[in-house]
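User: tokens in, sequence out, please.
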């Protein structure tokens, strides 16, 4: 996170980031387009773009702002904002800028390596941060976690459960969700998921489909493909390595499944985002 003055160079189309983005306007203005809406970024407003949300950025002149890039995964491995819908832009509450300033003091070196979303160093930021040792004390780490939660509170105030399958699985089958997250790199059978849920496989599959809308193994494959998309954007792992990490031992099979779900091959997906 850091404070930046963007100019006319801050014009990007179809940005897809493997982390969420939060902006606090200070002076000037810009605009961002996502979820079928155009939002004007300006002084006094805070704006949130969830991870993996395609969006366009436009700055006609200058936009002085704080920006925060973060990951907000729940224990089951899904991003918090794929479970929720909320107001993506709201007025900032009193004291909000002070929270950002304090967070920057705790992590003074956690700035973007560049501002171009097409650059590899930008997209690999989550992976590089995961590899760093925490330079903070336990007290500062806990304070940083509390600050992040406070920074998200204005958006969560309007949050409601998303009607998509992730939210339905999280509410009804959280143990199954966590099992998938912990063992995604291994073969997972229907009987394994049913055992975690404490149900007979046939009954479990029927109940899962009734609530979520797809069979459990179909849902599992979609989770594998989402994980593959993240690894393609945020890592240098080869297609074979990614296939292994998501539990598909055959790279050719992984490519066929990825093509089915994402309408493009893994290599084309990575190339399309200039990785």
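Assistant: Sequence out:
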């Amino acid at each position: 996170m850091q404070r930046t003055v963007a100019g006319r160079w801050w014009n990007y189309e179809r940005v897809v980031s493997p982390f969420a983005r939060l902006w606090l306007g200070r002076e000037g203005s810009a605009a961002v387009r996502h979820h079928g809406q155009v939002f004007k970024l300006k002084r006094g407003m805070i704006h949130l773009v969830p991870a993996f949300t395609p969006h366009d950025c436009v700055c006609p002149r200058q936009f002085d702002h704080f920006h925060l890039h973060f990951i907000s995964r729940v224990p089951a491995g899904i991003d918090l904002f794929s479970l929720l819908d909320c107001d993506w832009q709201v007025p900032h509450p009193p004291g909000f800028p002070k929270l950002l300033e304090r967070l920057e003091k705790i992590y003074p070196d956690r700035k973007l390596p560049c501002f171009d979303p097409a650059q590899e160093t930008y997209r690999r930021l989550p992976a590089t941060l995961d590899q760093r040792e925490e330079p903070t004390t336990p007290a500062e780490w806990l304070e940083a976690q509390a600050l992040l939660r406070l920074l998200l509170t204005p958006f969560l105030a309007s949050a409601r459960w998303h009607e998509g399958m992730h939210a339905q699985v999280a509410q009804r089958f959280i143990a199954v969700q966590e099992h998938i997250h912990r063992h995604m790199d291994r073969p997972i059978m229907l009987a394994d998921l049913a055992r975690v849920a404490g149900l007979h496989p046939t009954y479990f599959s029927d109940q899962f489909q009734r609530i979520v809308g797809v069979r459990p193994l179909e849902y599992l494959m979609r989770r594998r493909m989402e994980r593959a998309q993240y690894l393609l954007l945020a890592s240098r792992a080869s297609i074979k390595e990614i296939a292994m990490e998501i539990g598909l031992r055959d790279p050719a099979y992984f490519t066929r499944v990825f093509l089915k779900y994402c309408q493009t091959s893994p290599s084309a997906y990575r190339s399309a985002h200039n990785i």
